[in-house]
Amino acid sequence: AQSVTQPDIHITVSEGASLELRCNYSYGATPYLFWYVQSPGQGLQLLLKYFSGDTLVQGIKGFEAEFKRSQSSFNLRKPSVHWSDAAEYFCAVGASGGATNKLIFGTGTLLAVQP
Amino acid sequence: DSGVTQTPKHLITATGQRVTLRCSPRSGDLSVYWYQQSLDQGLQFLIQYYNGEERAKGNILERFSAQQFPDLHSELNLSSLELGDSALYFCASSVGTGFREQYFGPGTRLTVT
User: Fold this and answer.
1) Which of A43, A45, A55, B51 would be a feasible disulfide site paired with A67, CB 3.0-4.6 Å?
2) For B23-39, what is each residue's pLDDT tens digit?
3) Considering Cα of B19, then B52, then B57, then A35, what sign does the dihedral take?
4) In Å, what is the CA distance from B53 to each residue of A15, A41, A107?
């Protein structure tokens, strides 16, 4: 069965420091991979996606992610974190099978940014 | 702003009641998805509609139902509500039937007292 694991429930980084959020997936075929961000009281905003091609994908707000098939990973990175990046981050895999194209989400990583 | 709208933003109701959540997809999107976000279950897929027809069901209770209307807006009906149904309910939309990114609405926060 398809699944997504985000091993870090909570991460705190200092403003200006680099960030890496981990995501591992389990999926039989080539996955469609996504990172979403949820600010408090807000909906989910798409940061970036990987469908095929270049394994390093660029997203909005200065984020990037790298797809590593050998490690079944899709880690999210940002070179310099801003206080406004404090939010919850969700990794998701697109499970395309049968009639549906649903998203399977990880449990999320809550990012706190220290001044 | 994703272009997906959901109403109401907040809903407080009592156990045993029935509520209807509404979603309007982005212009041009034919697929609508409903997800539930709760503390104990996380983000879970409930149901998908494409151009008015049900495409797939996920972890949706029998007390819940949905439909998509000819103008493509969708409604999620929750009945015989229980305390455990308190959650954030998100609607998302995407283009077509092939896999594309899904854009999420702001959600409806349901509180059952």
Assistant:
1) A55
2) 999 999 999 999 999 98
3) negative
4) 47, 31, 30
CB within 8 Å: A101 and B97: yes
Measured between CA atoms, the residue of chain A closest to residue B10 is A41
Which residues of chain A, if any, have pLDDT below 50? Answer: none
The size of chain A, in residues, is 115
Token representation of residue B84? 């455990």
Bridge-partner residues for B96, per DSSP?
A: none
Q: Given this model, what pLDDT does residue A28 score?
A: 72
Q: Tokens 């998805």 belong to which residue?
A: B33
pLDDT band at B18 (very low <50, low <70, confident <90, very high): very high
Residues of chain B contacting residue A43, judged by C-beta atoms under 8 Å apart: 2, 4, 90, 104-107
Q: Compute the C-alpha angle B20/B64/B60, nearest 5°.
A: 130
Distance CA B72, CA B22 (A): 11
A15: Cβ contacts below 8 Å, ≥ 6 apart = A81, A82, A83, A113, A114, A115
A 88-107 residues with CB < 8 A to B:
90, 94, 96, 98-107
B98 pLDDT higher than 70? no
Those residues whose C-beta lies under 8 Å from the C-beta of residue B15, and which sit 6 or more positions away, are B81, B82, B83, B112, B113
